Amino acid sequence: MTDFPTDDARFEDFRLPGVPxxxxxxxxxxxxLQDWHEMMRVRPHxxxxxxxxxxxxELSLRRVMGRxxxxxxxxxxxxxxxxxxxxxxxxxxxxxxxxxxxPRRIAIIEVKHWSGTLRLDGEQWIYQRRSGEVQVFDSxxxxxxxxxxxxxxxxxxxxxxxxxxxxxxxxVFTHPGLDLDERLAAHPSVVTLYDLQxxxxxxxxxxxxSELLLAKLIERCAKPATATKLTxxxxxxMTPATTTRIAEVVGQLRTWDVVRLHGGxxxxxxxxxxxxxxxxxxxxxxxxKASLHWWRGKLWGLVPLLGLAPFGRMRGDLLPTTSVGxxxxxxxxxxxxxxxxxxxxxxxxELRTG
Length: 354
Description:
Blueprint: E1 15-16, H1 29-40, H2 49-65, E2 69-71, E3 74-83, E4 93-101, E5 106-112, E6 116-121, E7 124-129, E8 134-137, H3 140-157, E9 167-173, E10 178-180, H4 182-185, E11 190-192, H5 209-222, H6 227-234, H7 240-252, E12 257-261, E13 266-276, E14 279-281, E15 289-294, H8 302-305, E16 312-316, E17 322-324, E18 329-334, E19 341-344, E20 348-352
Parallel strand pairs: 5-9, 6-10, 9-11
Antiparallel strand pairs: 1-19, 2-3, 3-4, 4-5, 6-7, 7-8, 12-13, 12-20, 13-14, 13-18, 15-16, 15-20, 16-17, 18-19
Helix pairs in contact: 2-5
C-alpha cells in the first residue's frame, strides 16, 4: 500500500493495501450479506478544511481558469498539463495554471492566491502566511522556466518549431493582501493585481474580477512590453495560421483527472485504470465522466441484500453502463504523491477524465 500520511487515518479508509482479489461470481445470501456489511462501513468523505479555505479565496478565478477564453488579442487556456519529456511518457507532466497564446508570444502563467509576506533569501522564496506559518519554496520563476521548455518541446513534437524568444512566463499574485519585498516587487516575471490595474472598485457591471484579470493578461501578452523586446523581433507577429495551430495544440492538452468521493472530497491526478464488473480498463478517453450510483444506507442497502439489484451501477460517457461491485476499484496517481494507490469504488461517486 502506498504510504499516505494523514492526521486522521479515517480520512484514508478509501485507500486499499493492494488490488482486491477478484472473487468468483456468487449469488448466494452469504456473499450478499458480507458485501452489505462492507457497504454499511462506507461513510462520507468531506472535502479537507485546507482545500475549502483555499477554494473560498480562489473560487471566482478557478471557475474561469478551467475554460478556454479568447478575445481579439488571443487565447487563454487554464489547467493544462504538458509532458515533461515528449519522448518519455513515464516522466510525468507539468501542470500549467494558464497558457496565453497571442500572435506575438506564448506565455506560461503561474497563479498564486497568497496572503501575507513573500521575500527572497538567496534563491529561495520565503512565504509567511498571516497565521505566522512559514513555507520555503524554490524559485517559482525557475520552475516556470521548466514548464516553458516542456511546452516548447511539445509544440516541436507536433511540427511547430516556435523560437524560444517567442515564449515568456510570469507569476501572478491575485490576493491584494500579499506584501512583496523590493527584489520580488521589481522582478520582471512577477505580476500583481495592482500591476494589471485590476481592483474590485473598477470592475464594470456584469464583468467579474477574474474575467477582467484574464482579459488583462491576454492583452499584456499581446503587446510588446519594452523597446528592447521590439529589437528582438517581437514587433513582428506570427501568422494567423501559426497562432491558430498553436492554440489548437495547447487546447488539446489534457487537464487533471478527478475522483470524487462519497461526501464531496475530490482527488486530482492521473486515472491509470478502472476495474468495473471484474474487467480492468486502462485506456480511458479524455473529457468524459462516469457517475456511480450505490445502494447505501441500512434501508436502501436491503435492495441488493435481497438480490433485487447489484450494489452499484455506473453510468455516463466514460464507460458503458454497467453494474459495479464491492471488489471494483481504480488505480489512481494523486497529484503530489510519489506512487499511485488503489481506491475502492464503493467510496466513489464520480470519475472524470481531463
